[in-house]
Design a protein that fits this description.
With 421 residues, this protein is mainly β. It folds into two domains: 24-254, Single-stranded right-handed beta-helix, Pectin lyase-like (Pectate Lyase C-like), CATH 2.160.20; 277-417, Jelly Rolls (Sandwich). The protein is 2% helix and 51% strand. The chain contains one helix and 37 strands. It has one helix at residues 32-41, and strands at 16-17, 26-30, 44-47, 50-54, 64-68, 74-78, 83-86, 94-102, 111-116, 123-131, 136-139, 145-154, 161-166, 172-173, 176-183, 187-192, 194-195, 197-205, 209-214, 217-226, 230-235, 238-246, 266-267, 274-279, 284-285, 293-294, 297-299, 308-311, 314-316, 320-332, 339-346, 349-350, 356-359, 365-376, 381-388, 393-395, 407-417. Strands 1, 2, 3, 4, 5, 6, 8, 10, 12, 15, 18, 20 and 22 form a 13-stranded parallel β-sheet that branches.
Length: 421
């Protein structure tokens, strides 16, 4: 193959070199136009060692790979009062690797990259820091992939996450965040509407919230939380955790987890592997006087005023000893209900020590909490049941107009280990 011209690229078929399009590797002048031209011209764009200042948003016009010479030698400075690089339509997915991406926290809307429909397009070996808002945002993607990402100093005074994975208008399914460090940010990672996402080797420190999950389910496999105001916050979410450690024992997981949109409520050997609850605009009424009724856990976080029934059974997937705590707030429909009770059953058998009862107070309400330790076997099926001396008894939380994190029935499960012989 002959040389096409004397340039930084030299050979046809190689990635477009931003220097050929006039980019300034010293960072002294705005290289946005040159980088945009390179992205328009080629599906692969190469950044040699240097610092590249971007003061105008970059908008890919096709699917493109952005390739740096190395995370330590290439810096992309996105000094834009918006996302510095953004896609908003399908067919323009972006892969980025081997560079550092920085922002400018003095610009209040400054954010890093925002990628739409970016499934199976890895972001890897990146350092992302110094943004007033998000560092990385992935929207409406099937199988988003982030590997070997180091983020810090993102959204230091606002409530955005260093890494934000969002369902957008539909969903975000699958995906893997592997070897992720998030530190000194408002939030480390925010999962919104994500399904079956995995965080592997996740380290987060000095954040207001280490992992924020809303209407999501996923797994942390090996995680370390240190010096965060709150390690994990779940709203309407199930986050299973394997080999998770924290400077606080047990880990500083939010005690107001509530709801679950995952129909597979599973118990595996982790700290608080699952937490389920009903939001306060939903009611469960007993089926009859002095008759135990199984409580169906559900979520109506996204559909106010409607009830989406998801599960009534906790299926045990690992044999061992478990701590199970149930809590319920009971309220009478009429003055006829006076006593209420709750219990856990394994199959059709009541779990010893799980039964508790009480009488309603003068306002017609009472909250009962019970914790029990039980040896459970593989495929045991655990249910929470409640009863009242009158068919007018029900489980109901504080009456407010819209759902909050207050729950009227909750179930917390903690695996304690293998039963000793």
């Amino acid at each position: 193959m002959s040389l096409t011209k004397v340039s930084y690229s030299m050979i046809t078929g190689t990635p477009a070199n931003v220097l050929d399009f006039g980019a300034d590797p010293t960072g002294a002048t705005n290289s946005a136009a040159a980088i945009q031209a390179a992205m328009n011209a080629s599906k692969a764009v190469y950044f040699p060692a240097g610092t590249y200042l971007v003061q105008t948003k970059l908008v890919p016009t096709q699917a493109v790979d952005l390739i740096g010479e190395g995370r330590e030698s290439v810096t992309l400075q996105l000094k834009v009062n918006d996302f510095g690089l953004e896609t908003t339509v399908s067919g323009r997915s972006v892969s980025i690797r081997d560079m550092t991406i920085t922002g400018d926290t003095t610009l209040t809307s400054n954010a890093g990259i925002n990628l739409f429909d970016n499934g199976d397009r890895p972001l890897e070996r990146l350092e992302v820091h110094g943004f007033a808002r998000q560092g990385i945002k992935i929207v409406q993607s099937v199988n988003p992939i982030l590997r070997d990402i180091r983020t810090y100093n993102c959204s230091p005074v606002q409530s955005f996450a260093a890494i934000h994975i969002d369902k957008g208008a539909t969903s975000c399914v699958g995906g893997e965040l592997e070897n992720i460090y998030a530190g000194f940010s408002s939030r480390g990672v925010f999962l919104n509407g994500c399904r079956n996402i995995a965080l592997i080797n996740y380290i987060v420190e000095h954040c207001a919230i280490g992992l924020d999950a809303d209407t999501s389910d996923g797994l942390i496999n090996v995680g370390w939380f240190e010096a965060n105001t709150q390690d994990i916050n779940c709203v309407d979410a199930i986050i299973s955790r394997i080999n998770v450690a924290s400077t606080v024992v047990p880990p500083n997981f939010d005690s107001s987890f509530s709801g679950s949109t995952n129909p597979s409520f599973r118990a595996i050997p982790v700290y608080f592997p699952a937490f389920a609850g009903m939001y306060n605009n939903d009611t469960r009424t007993v089926s009859g006087a002095n008759t135990f009724t199984t409580c169906l856990f559900n979520s109506n976080f996204e559909a106010y005023g409607s009830s989406i029934t998801l599960f009534d059974t906790l299926n045990i997937l690992t044999k061992g000893v478990y701590e199970i705590e149930w809590s319920a707030t009971f309220r009478e429909i009429t003055a006829s209900a006076q006593s209420v009770a709750g219990r856990l059953i394994n199959g059709a058998t009541e779990i010893s020590g799980s039964y508790a009862s009480s009488t309603l107070d003068a306002s017609g309400t009472v909250t009962i909490t019970r914790k029990v330790i039980a040896a459970l076997d593989l495929n045991d099926a655990i249910k929470f049941q409640f009863s009242s001396n009158s068919a007018s008894g029900r489980i109901e939380s504080v009456a407010v107009a819209t759902p909050t994190n207050q729950t009227n029935a909750t179930l917390i499960v903690k695996y304690l280990g293998v039963e000793q012989p």
